[in-house]
Specification:
The complex is a heterodimer of chains A (686) and B (135). Chain A is mainly beta and 686 residues long. Chain A has a single domain, classed as Maltoporin, Chain A, CATH 2.40.170. In chain A, the strands form five sheets. Chain A has a 22-stranded antiparallel barrel. The N terminus of chain A is likely disordered. By secondary structure, chain B is α+β, with helices and mostly antiparallel strands. Chain B has a single domain, classed as 2-Layer Sandwich (Alpha-Beta Plaits). In chain B, strands 2-3-1-4 form a four-stranded antiparallel beta sheet. The longest helix of chain B has 23 residues. Chain B starts with a helix and ends with a helix. The relative contact order of chain B is 0.16. Classes of the chains: A mainly beta (686), B alpha+beta (135). At the A-B interface, α1, β33 and β36 of A face α1, β1, α2, β2 and β3 of B.
């Protein structure tokens, strides 16, 4: 109650003080003022796009600066659309959820090229430093057919800082109270009228062991990461453009018991448990655009992308290693017939070669290293043709119908239809609807890396199917006047996903009563669906003061073997986010406060012995950041998880890491307590 | 924990109130609006990074759609010419937008409108074009 009163009075006084700053000019000053001011405060924080036909939430650079946003995962902390959680308490792998569905059902794109796929997925959210990003677009629903058939829940597109941005030097340095430090250096150089390049470098180190809950295990692994990227743009006046570049990454993470020494082998007889995960990632891409008509009404584009990823890891005595070679090719032909009709047609090729080996060693009570080697390698080639038609009636009605036909070397012919509709009832009421199909082939281990951080055997059924789902839904947006803001909005969403085929990962099946010794991975037999409801509010009621509030509710169920239609475990039922930002004149000081309420999620049945449903507690999270702008220099300091809330006992049977009961994948809450951090951003403008 | 929360909110609240009081105590404030060749977010960022830290500037707004920059300043510490020069130093083409009433007076006095330079395209056009093409 006291907190509520404090928050309310804080909000009121800020509004009053902002109003005081905004008093009319004195009579002796020049009377001319701007009629419609674009507020200098960070108006471009997070917002739902008004013009995009697909419901899209945009997290801009200003929005990314509301928090430390060291990695992509942290960039989603002040949005409710995307939840970020840990896949386990040992590897530090973070996974997102969109529309209540695991991150694997969201298509991750880097400037509209597939990214963080396959073996890069488990740790991919830490591969793109937040400071490299210009914006993030979160589109809900099946979206476009242009980039493939994969997106089921939605698409998250990442836009990086551009070579054409006239900032020869940007430096970001960051440190937190646990001495996790990070350095980002970006240089965008315009060599001449045609050529521009951007060089990105990142280094981060987290070398401190920390065990806040005293369970003998590190709360997060120690990490070291180095990233480098070089991107080029070649632009010619006649519209020809060529974008190309490469990026490389090396990351190593070491976790497990506090006393674990990487040089000493893990041993069930001595209970010595640790993990080590090394990742190497290389990406090379080229995008070419060539106009076929003088007015650019017709053009052709070709995208080529190659990715190499290598992962070498062990979790106790289990070992997992994999290498991925992926190539993505896309040839697109754009035709704008007139202001109402547009057609995109194209050819698409996707080649994936995975070499994966799992040595699922286990302890039979006598022999500490019983080997169980599984070769999970596969080669999958997809070739497809697609077409997407757009009807646009004065931007008031936009209808997009797309379809694609693919041939998959493992799963044969696949047909993917998708439609999107946007209709503006008026300038202030916008309706959107979307429906479409999506497919996805599974990567058993990297989709579920947390299962390796358990004492169980991995049991994979034969002939796992291609996942196949339909997603449909819609949204309504209402714009209205709220104090000084002419364009405050409320947005209502509903999306539903129905799986036809899905690969389930189930730890709730016991071999004999009360013996849960396996993680079962098998094809869905029955129904699986998700209903996702969301309401968003955003306003700048007075100048330099913004409020965004979001609430999301999910209902995610599937027919689980032996349990029938059951709520999926560890999926939070709801989440609410409130962000308040206030900036003094000219953004010299910026204050950000974010509050989250995280709903309960069903705990798996093996957590308690009584066969009843148990739920995690509802918990709040608070974040605050203070930013000071100097000439060329921005200094920020903040606090995450202010209430110091952490999940109790995140590792089950932590004292017996080689028992079947050992399980670090039952994670529903934060693993790290309160965190203080500070950083700076220094920019030289051209 | 309650104590930590109270400290944070009190600190934020005090700063907000102080900044409000400071704003009200300003005298000698004048305003000027310039037509500036800004056409991208980066241009706005460039201006917001520099002009607020010029001596005497007390408030600033950038309207990308109208290509206008509005500045409130302490006339004892700076003047329109200095502000115009500061904007030009950032490689923008700048001209003052004279309010109608003032413009009529000036025309009567000099027979010529003070400003009629049109904003020209700067380096940021390229960035804007790039952004558009990416969309």
């Amino acid at each position: 109650m006291t907190k509520k009163i404090l928050l309310l009075s804080f909000t009121c006084i800020i509004i009053i003080s902002a109003k005081a700053q905004n008093t009319p000019p004195a009579k002796d000053t020049v009377s001319y003022t701007l009629n419609e001011v674009v507020y200098s405060a960070a108006k471009e924080g997070n917002y739902v796009s008004k013009i995009k036909p697909v419901k899209t939430e945009v997290i801009t650079n200003a929005g990314l600066c509301k928090m430390a946003c060291c990695s992509l995962a942290e960039s989603f902390e002040n949005t409710a659309s995307v939840s970020v959680g840990y896949s386990d308490a040992i590897s530090g792998s973070r996974q997102i959820r969109l529309l209540g569905l695991a991150g694997k059902y969201t298509s991750m794109l880097e400037e509209n090229r597939p990214a963080m796929r396959g073996l890069a997925a488990p740790f991919g959210l830490s591969y793109i430093p937040g400071q490299w990003l210009e914006s993030i677009q979160v589109a809900k629903g099946p979206g476009s057919v242009i980039n493939g058939y994969e997106s089921i829940a939605g698409q998250i597109n990442l836009e990086l800082r551009k070579p054409t941005t006239e900032e020869p030097l940007f430096v970001n340095a960051y440190i937190d109270h646990l001495l996790r430090s990070e350095l980002n250096v970006i240089s965008s150089l315009q060599l001449n009228k045609k050529w521009s390049t951007a060089i990105f470098a990142h280094g981060s180190i987290d070398a401190q062991k920390h065990d806040g809950n005293s369970d003998g295990f590190m709360d997060e692994p120690m990490k070291r990461q180095l990233n480098f990227s070089n991107r080029w743009i070649y632009l010619v006046d006649n519209g020809v453009q060529w974008r190309f570049g490469f990026s490389g990454l090396y990351e190593t993470r070491e976790g497990g018991q506090m006393h674990f020494d990487k040089q000493a082998p893990c041993n069930p007889l001595t209970n010595n448990y640790g993990t080590n995960i090394d990742n190497t990632h290389i990406n090379i891409y080229s995008k070419t655009g060539y106009p076929l008509a003088d007015d650019n009404s017709s053009n052709i584009a070709f995208v080529a992308d190659y990715t190499y990823h290598d992962i070498q890891s062990f979790f106790g005595v289990k070992e997992y290693s994999g290498t991925q070679h992926s190539a993505f090719l896309n040839l697109m032909l754009y035709n704008t017939f007139n202001e109402h009709h547009k057609l995109i047609t194209g050819l698409n090729g996707h080649f994936n070669d995975y070499n994966e080996l799992l040595n699922d060693r286990w302890f039979d009570g006598v022999n500490p290293n019983v080997p169980t080697v599984q070769d999970l390698s596969r080669r999958e080639t997809v070739g497809g043709i697609y077409s997407e038609y757009t009807f646009n009636k004065d931007e008031k009605l936009v209808f997009i119908a797309g379809m694609r036909l693919d041939y998959n070397s493992l799963y044969k012919w696949l047909f993917t239809p998708r439609v999107n509709l946007k209709y503006d009832f008026s300038d202030n009421i916008i309706f959107r609807a979307a429906a479409g199909r999506g497919f996805r082939s599974v990567n058993v281990i990297t989709d579920n890396i947390g299962i390796l951080a358990t004492g169980r055997q991995v049991s994979i059924a034969n002939n796992l199917k291609l996942e196949d789902a339909w997603t449909y839904g819609g949204s309504l947006m209402f714009y209205f006047k709220c104090f000084e803001d002419e364009k405050a909005y409320i947005s209502l969403d509903y999306f539903r996903t129905d799986f036809i085929d899905q690969v389930l990962v189930n730890q709730e099946i016991s071999s004999t009563p009360n013996l849960y010794d396996k993680v079962h991975i098998y094809n869905l037999n029955g129904r699986s669906f998700t209903n996702a409801y969301q309401i968003d509010f955003s306003s700048f009621p007075v100048e330099r003061f913004s409020v965004t509030a979001t609430f999301r509710y999910n209902d995610t169920r599937a027919d689980l073997q032996g349990q029938g239609l059951t709520e999926l475990s560890l999926v939070d039922r709801y989440k609410g986010v409130l962000n308040i930002q206030y900036a003094t004149r000219m953004n010299k000081w910026v204050f950000d406060v974010t509050a989250q309420i995280n709903g309960q999620s069903r705990l798996p049945n093996f957590v308690h012995d009584d066969q009843k449903d148990h739920y995690s507690p509802v918990y709040p999270m608070f974040f605050a950041q203070l930013t000071r702008n100097f000439k060329g220099l921005l200094v920020y300091a903040g606090m995450e998880n202010i209430l110091n809330y952490t999940q109790n006992n995140p590792i089950l049977s932590h004292d017996a890491p080689y028992s079947y009961g050992f399980n670090s994948s039952v994670i529903w809450g934060p693993l790290m307590g309160r965190k203080f951090y500070a950083g700076l951003r220094y920019t030289i403008f051209k | 924990m309650k104590k930590t929360m109270n400290i944070i909110f009190t600190a934020v609240l005090s700063l907000a109130v102080v900044s409000g009081i400071q704003a009200q105590s300003k005298n000698n404030e004048a305003e000027v609006t310039f037509s500036v060749s800004v056409d991208c977010d980066h241009c706005k960022k460039k201006i917001m990074n520099s002009i607020p830290h010029e001596k005497g500037v007390t408030d600033l707004k950038v309207d990308l759609a109208k290509k206008e920059v509005w500045i409130k300043f302490d006339s004892k510490k700076t003047d329109k010419t200095k502000l115009q020069k500061a904007l030009e130093k950032l490689d923008f083409t700048v001209s003052e937008i004279v309010p109608k009433a003032e413009k009529t007076q000036q025309q009567t006095a000099t027979g010529c409108a003070a400003t009629c330079r049109s904003a020209q395209t700067g380096g940021c056009m390229k960035a804007a074009a790039t952004k558009k093409s990416e969309e």
